[in-house]
Amino acid sequence: MGVKGKLIGSIEVKCGGHLVHDIFHNYTHHIPDICLGKINHFEIHEGGAIKVGSVVGWKYNDGDGKEKNLKQVIEAVDSQNKSISWEVIGADLLELYNSFTTITSCDHQWTIWTFVYEKKTEETPELLVLLGIALDLTKMSKVTFSRTRTSIYTLICLSV
Question: What is the DSSP letter of 93?
Fold first, then answer.
């Protein structure tokens, strides 16, 4: 049995947390366009949309600029509380971790990232770089929503 941990980061989002939730729930396929250089690819492998049971894949750059892969299954979607839970089922991360779940949630003006994991050994590093990427992704989304009129912003405004 490994060492269990929880890492939480939050960032203020003046455009409203509901818009950030919408990008992860309804417009996830646009994230690589928003986060150039951080998120390289997003694909829905099973399910056709972000819903419970959907399997998604990501390609992202780690802190050293190396491309990493991540495959997740959506465990829960709570639109009322603006929360999505993603369990890692295949990834470079699983070389160091027995389990890894990401929870994105929004509370008024805050977006919260929670990583719940079990390390294989005590020497396994904390996921501070990945948390930094998640927070950067939120900042980039915030800039897209609040400063530009991209098609993503227009679509989200029409859906709210």
Answer: G
